[in-house]
Amino acid sequence: MAYEVQKTDEEWREQLSRDEYAVLRKAGTERAFTGEYTDTKTVGVYRCRACDAELFKSETKFDSHCGWPSFYAPLAEDRVEYIEDTTMGMKRVEVRCANCGSHMGHVFDDGYGTPTGQRYCINSISMTLEPEE
């Protein structure tokens, strides 16, 4: 897929820290319960750390007790893309930023009690939070 933001691997490595690069560009995962946004309740917009695209609103964040920030919906459907992920012996749906193709996390159909029934399990390191003023 052609993304609006396109950079070489070398440019991504220069822009991102080693850990950010491992998650955003190589589909890694931060350890559970270690991310800076896992428990935050700050009102605002979560943006892609790689390209600054707005992806999630804090109003859709909920505590799923899974160890990663969880949302029940993206800001808009065209903000993310979905990729079938069959790595690690599982069948999952990867969530990527539709603007730059960076890995955000995965979406699961186990968001019980949420308006969508979905749980977007997103790595804190893949986002920045812009607090509402």
Automatic annotation (TrEMBL):
A Pfam entry, by short name: SelR
Superkingdom of the source species: Bacteria
EC number annotated for this UniProt entry: 1.8.4.12
UniProt GO molecular function: metal ion binding; peptide-methionine (R)-S-oxide reductase activity
Known cofactor(s): Zn(2+)
Domain MsrB per the UniProt entry, residue ranges: 9-132
Keywords noted in UniProt: Metal-binding, Oxidoreductase, Zinc
GO biological process terms, semicolon-separated: protein repair; response to oxidative stress
Reactions catalysed, as given in the entry: L-methionyl-[protein] + [thioredoxin]-disulfide + H2O = L-methionyl-(R)-S-oxide-[protein] + [thioredoxin]-dithiol
Enzyme class: oxidoreductase
InterPro entries per record: Met_Sox_Rdtase_MsrB, Met_Sox_Rdtase_MsrB_dom
A single Gene Ontology CC term: cytoplasm
NCBIfam families to which the protein is assigned, alphabetical: peptide-methionine (R)-S-oxide reductase MsrB
Protein name: peptide-methionine (R)-S-oxide reductase
Organism: Nocardioides panacis
The encoding gene: msrB
